[in-house]
Specification:
Rossmann fold; 16 strands; Structural Genomics Hypothetical 15.5 Kd Protein In mrcA-pckA Intergenic Region, Chain A; Arc Repressor Mutant, subunit A; binds adenosine-5'-triphosphate; about 650 residues; transferase activity; binds zinc ion; about 30% helix; eight-stranded mixed β-sheet; about 15% strand
Length: about 650
């Protein structure tokens, strides 16, 4: 039961919720039932069928409608007298500026991506409004409190570096199913259906008799005289047969590894007379997006484990259907976990490769989860997290700083405890977002253009939407609706100039000021000229330091040695911004008991791209297990500096 003071804090509060999805639906319901009377909700999305299993405020009839508006209507049915103001909009829209934020007593995030989270963090800092931040990944979740000047901000902690696989593991020596998925998705699928100009590490050469006359020919191109069946079989034989044989020639590679087995269609599938496709064509007419190889082959259950023969049939059928039914999209397709045919193709290709390397096969359902880096959402976790958000919001409204807790919902409850509360830390003094610590950028001022700086640093790394760049009093770049034509032309011309040739030349020793007018975030960047960069480790051709690397900003990539960070060898394909989940497993029950006795010395464990602070005392009592299978990843940030942070007093 809430106390009198709590109730009056609740009743007098005006709160902003950002996100009305899995967490948001639970949160709105809990806020309303807890007595909150003035709630504003921003969500840019409309309701999808796939939301209905857990976003319980929505029904089938609401599909296609605004989440924020429907959530409001649903809650008003059982709390008709409260005020709920919905905005079907992106929180990054200019109308949600600092003045807009200032009207609220607290902001509650139920978002699913880092970009929006960082944006809200900055607006909360600029407006001085406390933020309660949240996230869930399957059974894991966290709620954190961020109050300007009192606790760390959302961006105070460095995020774990993006994980990639060494290219040779993917192209030559896979040992896990996830390696086969990355190969099927990022190499084979991309090669066959994606942009032809993209770099691709697949072996496209062949000494195959039929192609030797056309030496430079890309074997992945369909030949004029080939039907889809012949084309599919040729691709199959090339990637699962010939390429494996080529790889086997390198004896060194296989000295300490199991040798793979080349797989050819003739070994798995009997040759069908040309044009004989049974009832397959009848099965896949209509909307191209509903085309399915499984359906046309009569395979019904996505949780079934297909044999090598079935996978081979799905592979050929999916490839055939892409060319037959979706030819217009070929050349511009990117893998999408919601694209059934793409998932079927990738599953079957990964399984055939897995069979060749004696890696256990997986069902389509499992493969889809790995390919889309999906951890299935758990409604109960969202409900627990929503409850915790409201508890923290009430403390914030009462300015009860000593009681603030960062709370982590763990995978394996023990000693009957599921939740681990920890005290928040003070702001990080070297955070460029909430303290004014300057950043340093090493860049070739003779070669890099202002455009490179804007795209690779200001937008991608600093997450600014409406940047303004100044050198002393000279304005080098600005965006906005109210610019004069000549200003727009000047800035466009500047973008194409190298830094040292700008009207106010930027050279080593220059200090640039970069500002985002909407986020009211301003930071200084010390420029250091550097001529050479390592193409592999520093592909941007510039290095920013003092910056909190964010997982979401980086796109999935298979790379030789991974990024140049401390966890370079740890690798997982990250497909999109939303897929930055990392799980922790706390094996030892002691950690839970120790949860309240923390000291300021700490180690950080990353959860859902946030940082989970655990004391060294707790660490001594527990075992953190490492496992890089797709959904059991444990990461421990190597930084054990005991003086790094201080607990809020
Ligand atoms: N920039 C943004 N502005 C406003 N709302 C946003 C923004 N970014 C994300 N959201 C909203 O945050 C919510 C996050 O909810 P959730 O994590 O449940 O995702 P979902 O898209 O509903 O479900 P899923 O991704 O699992 O299919 C979504 O409703 C999404 O529209
Ligand atoms: Zn900060």
């Amino acid at each position: 039961m809430a106390s009198e003071e709590q109730l009056s804090a609740i009743k007098g509060a005006k709160v902003l919720m950002v996100g009305a999805g899995g967490i948001g639906c639970e949160l709105l319901k809990t806020l309303a039932l807890s007595g909150f009377e003035d709630i504003h909700i921003i969500d840019m999305d409309t309701i999808e069928v796939s939301n209905l299993n857990r976003q319980f405020l929505f029904r089938q009839k609401h599909v296609g409608q605004s989440k924020a508006k429907v959530a409001r209507e649903a809650v008003l049915k059982f709390r008709p007298h409260i005020k709920i103001t919905p905005y079907h909009a992106n929180v990054k829209d200019p109308e949600f500026n600092v003045d807009f934020f200032k009207q609220f007593n607290v902001v509650l995030n139920g978002l699913d991506n880092l970009d929006a989270r960082r944006h809200v963090n900055r607006l909360c800092l600029a407006s001085g409004v406390p933020l309660v931040e949240s996230g869930t990944t399957g059974f894991l979740g966290q709620v954190t409190v961020h109050v300007k000047g009192k606790t760390e901000c959302y961006e105070c902690q460095s995020k774990p570096a993006p994980k990639t696989y060494p290219v040779c593991t993917i192209t030559s020596t896979p040992t896990k199913f996830v390696h086969c998925i990355v190969w099927a998705k990022d190499l084979l699928f991309a090669k066959l259906f994606g942009n032809k100009n993209q770099e691709n590490d697949l072996n496209v050469r062949s000494t195959d008799a039929s192609s030797s006359s056309e030496h430079s020919e890309d074997v992945f191109e369909r030949r004029a005289d080939e039907d889809f069946e012949q084309y599919g079989r040729r691709i199959y034989d090339h990637v699962f047969g010939y390429n494996i044989e080529v790889a086997l020639r390198n004896e060194e590679t296989w000295k300490n590894r199991n040798k793979p087995r080349p797989v050819y269609t003739r070994d798995v599938l009997p040759l069908r007379p040309v044009g004989q496709n049974g009832n397959k064509d009848k099965a896949s007419i209509g909307d191209p997006s509903s085309v399915s190889a499984m359906a046309s082959l009569g395979l019904k259950n996505p949780q079934d484990l297909w044999s090598l023969k079935e996978n081979s049939e799905v592979f050929l059928e999916a490839l055939r259907l892409f060319f037959l039914k979706r030819e217009k999209e070929i050349g511009q397709l990117g893998f999408d976990k919601d694209d059934q045919l793409a998932v079927e193709f990738v599953t079957s290709a990964a399984n055939i490769r897995a069979a060749s390397f004696e890696i256990p096969l997986h069902s389509l359902f499992e493969a889809k989860g790995i390919a889309g880096n999906i951890v299935h959402a758990v409604a109960t976790t969202n409900a627990i997290i929503a409850g915790l958000i409201v508890l923290e919001a009430i403390k914030v409204l009462q300015n009860d700083v000593k009681s603030y807790r960062m709370t982590y919902c763990l995978e394996h409850p023990s000693r009957k405890m599921l939740l681990m509360p920890v005290e928040p830390f003070e702001p990080n003094k070297s955070c460029y977002v909430c303290s004014e610590t300057p950043l340093t950028l090493e860049i070739s001022t003779h070669r890099s253009k202002l455009r490179d700086f804007v795209e690779k640093i200001v937008k991608a790394k600093l997450g600014m939407s409406l940047p303004l760049i100044m050198h002393g009093v000279a304005l080098l770049y600005e965006v906005g609706d109210d610019l004069e034509e000549d200003e727009v032309a000047n800035y466009a011309a500047n973008l194409d100039k190298v830094l040292s040739e700008l009207p106010s030349p930027v050279t080593g020793g220059t200090i640039l000021t970069v500002e985002d007018l909407q986020q009211e975030l301003k930071c200084s960047i010390n420029i250091k000229h550097r001529e050479e960069f390592d193409e592999e480790k520093e592909p941007d051709g510039m290095v920013l330091s003092g910056w909190t690397p964010a997982l979401a900003a980086e796109k999935t990539k298979t790379s030789d040695n991974g990024p140049s960070s401390s966890n370079a060898s740890q690798t997982v394909p990250l497909e999109s911004e939303d897929n930055d989940e990392i799980e922790i497993i706390l094996k030892d029950p002691e950690i839970l008991a120790a949860g309240k006795k923390r000291k300021s010395s700490d180690i950080s464990v990353a959860v859902d791209s946030e940082i989970f602070s655990v004391t060294s005392e707790m660490l001594a009592k527990r075992k953190v297990e490492e496992d890089d299978s797709h959904n059991d990843i444990v990461m421990v940030d190597g930084n054990l500096d005991p003086n790094k942070k201080k607990r809020v007093q």
